[in-house]
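Notes continue from the previous slide.

Worked example: a multi-chain complex. Inputs as given:
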Amino acid sequence: MATVTAPARTRSGSKKAPDRMTGPRSTARRNWLGGGLAWVWLAIVLIPIYWIVITSFKDQSVYFSANPLALPTDPTLTNYQLVVESDFPRYFLNSVIVTVGSIVPAVLISFLASFAIVRGTGRVLKGINTLLLMGLAIPLQATIIPVYLIIIQLGLYDSLAAIILPSIAFALPLSVLVLSNFIRDVPRELFESMRVDGASDWKTLWNLAFPLTKPALVTVTIYNGLGIWNGFLLPLILTQSPEKRLLPLGLWTFQGQYSVNVPAIMASVVLTTLPILVLYVIGRRQLMSGLTAGFSK
Amino acid sequence: MTTLAPAALQSAPASTSPGGSGIRARSLTWMALPALVLFVAFGVIPLVGVLVLSFTEWDGIGKIRPAGFDSWRAVLTDPALPHALWVTFLVMALTWLVQTPMSILIGTFLAGHQRYREFQAVLYFIPLLLSSAALAITYKALLDPNFGLGAGLKLPILAQDWLGRPNLAMGVIIFVVSWQFIPFHSLIYQGGVRQIPTSMYEAALIDGAGRVRQFFSITLPQLKYTIITSSTLMIVGSLTFFDLIFVLTAGGPGDATRVLALDMYIRGFQANLMGPASAIAVILVLVGLALALLLRRLGGSATDSQLEGA
């Protein structure tokens, strides 16, 4: 179902006229309460973001005197310069390594497992599925102390691999749930005809399931990538030295160091969010249709 | 739709010949093994491990020694535990109460296909792109009583000592959590509303049902599974608001906002008492499991509905 409805929803953006006539929301009177709330909440959402951006361009002396919501009269890049010349590039690189290094294996492993769970039979696969579903109900952060112990035992403490391994494991339950939902929606006849043609499971996996699951793969990639990029607890507990810091942890220590220099802190906030914003702009439609298909109903 | 998934599940054995199914199953099982190995290593073993560690004494660096029920006795008699449980419950209940009605209303509104609503939806997602650490740092600066937004705009109402008073600090956390997650849940509801068949609204319109009536008689009941999914994510998620609270208030003022997850961290990694911290972690897991089971009971099953519906 999801694979059918998701593209239809995305298309509705460009093809609005028929929707406006048949859509449930436009046949009756205006939805004042929902609309009012939506606009008010949008303002509440945007004001802090606007404040972050304008503050990052303000001079420190101006910040303490001028109207906080006024545009900077004399925009400056010194804050960004300060951030770029600090250890942030190092943190940035670490974050990229950890996020890519976690997300690529996590999505591939989840995809393989989902295909096996949907297409395969047997008690082992059922058991694996149940186990992963249970993982959804458990706050995995609660297991951080034994994870810390395991990482020490493996000799990985204070390395980027220490963050990558648990990140992959923590991403599995939700990824397998969303991906197996999508694979389950692939019409049975397609698998059937592949089988009749003599295609192996491996071939079916890559030539049929993979292309048809792409929206879900993108969703799972972005959703988990976001969580790992923004993750705080794992780096806080599993690393120690400044050279191994990821961005959120770096932000926190930077804030401790420059607590009075609010504009510089805001510049660091902008810089850490920028790559995600770019990805969001590129992959938004995929993410939205995938998210609503994965979570709704 | 509800019958689709089970049918697909059953189809798997039916589609293979009885003789071949054994080989087939075995040949597919290996594909799930990497997931199994990783999840056992960093999910299942730690889950068992946290229970084992709660019966030991460990400072995080030295030797681990068995300690019987010492940690449990210490944790269960400590008045800090009921307090942390209460704070955790308060954060959970209040964030749910604020987020759910707002998300449903906004989601229903955003489900319309007008272009400006699509545009709103684009902006709506932005808070989710920021890390909790970044958010906490931002709000700390924004709410500073001397140099923040309130002082700068000369609005005394906004210039209170937000993070210095227990009730205000709790309010700030509820607000920041809502600020961060209402957009996400609105989008889940938007997707849910768009899956409601238009014919139901047309029928209601013919019967003369107004907007409010339509909302309560069609939209809300049809969103049942979406509400359960969204609530499960909210409630189980609220147990893990560690980073936001850690950076924003560090549990303070005093212990006013010290939720269970933070209590675990402070005991374990700041006071180096891994035994009691593990006991707290076990309680955290039990609370999470109990809530998930409760939500399952309330509305069929959240995970099953996802399996069937998506």
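Summary box: The domain at 87-295 of chain A is CATH 1.10.3720.10 (MetI-like fold). Chain A is about 80% helix and 0% strand.
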